[in-house]
Specification:
alpha/beta; eleven-stranded mixed β-sheet; two-stranded antiparallel sheet; 36% helix; globular
Length: 500
Amino acid sequence: MTQEFDLVEATVSDVHDAYEAGTLTCRELVDRYLERIEAYDRNGPELNAIITVNPHAIERAEELDAAFESEGLVGPLHGIPVAIKDQVETAEVRTTFGSEAFADYQPSTDATLVGKLREAGAVVLVKTNLPDWATSWFGYSSVLGRTKNPYALDRDPGGSSSGTGAAVAANLATIGIGEDTGGSIRLPAAYTNLFGIRVTPGLLSRTGMSPLVVSQDTPGPMTRTVADLATMLDVAVGYDPADEYTAVTEFVEGVSYADALDPDSLEGARIGVLRGAFGDSDDPDSGPVTRLVDEAIGTMTAAGAEVVDPVEIPSLDEHVERTSLYIAQSKRDLNDFFAAREDAPIDSVAQLYESGQYHEILDLLIGIAEEGPEDPESDPEYWERVAAQIAFQRAVLTVYSDHDLDVLLCPDVQVVPPTAASIEAGELDTLTFPTNTVIASQSGCCAVSMPAGLTDDGLPVGVELIGKPYDEATLVGLAYAYEQKADPRRPPETAPALED
């Protein structure tokens, strides 16, 4: 096996350069990731990020090597091993949704997104852990248990895309796919030193992906670099007749996110700081977050950004509370998903709840089962919440207009990654956890999480840019320019390069 290639922190471009130089094959790359998975996910620190390794990954790698010999790179993700959140259905790999009730569930078809990745040449390497049905900010599932944060093994990697975050951060795959309803890409990206983007719902197909709140759900990339994030968007964005939400892709027709990678994007960009969304600077859990986010703001200012600090979304807390749809809508959306699958082992949230096949800390899932209506449309309060999301978006967009802003800025989450002990002791609640990611999710905006650096204790912190609907290209450009100036990414010490 060729060992000249440095796998740790390798990008899509690095891999392709090595393929074309003849110093690496896809089979070798897959083998080396499998070695790391064995060393760091199954053994060593036992990150517990991966539910299933694709048993066909080596076969797929060999097919791609043969194709490369005859025709070169078959697509922009040729031979790129991907970690996919186990919320996304894969025909060749079981899909559990984090639920022990679905531990043996084998979908008959790939999700539309998986088909796009494969068409671009990707290798589905692993399926990653998530809290059952993506119903928590914390990385616990009934099918696998707790995923550890590779930067601090006693701490949480964030949810619900916890396994993808930990796997990509620890270099167990080149790139990853998460899913974001209220912040489930951005929160784990913040807690694992990654870039992660929530696109405006509809730009990426959700067909073959379990829902939580259909109108807010979207998959998206989680990567170590912005260039890789842009490459994945260019592959994944597009219309899917099976998902009517994707009709909005006409708003970004012809957009290339790779073309947005301009290192000078921050020059003249107007950034409004949502200072009211920061935590208490004197609090030991939120103070380090505020300090690192302020340093990131300083980096952007030095790069030419025009920072407006502070700006305010009036009645922000009230908007967030009034627009929460989890209890109101999620039971219906999950029940529709179960009903559409004849071979599903569970046919309703009620049956799942009665079976007891869910992780005990999942307070939101329990709340959905116990309090959520079967038919929310018969409840006037549900429609009030739906209308409140439209009003929330108007309130957010008014802030852009009043201050002539390109983006808003705040911490992804106000506190450092919590300890497993605090989560397991019941000290934290999903619906009251101080994450700011719900602002974009519940107002219909797009947002990107960027690494702000590591605290003195080595804990990752994320800074979020909130963009206007369908303005993902601006977010990509600003994130890229920030990345070039800040160089914030650091691999975790728990998963170093393996010795030859």
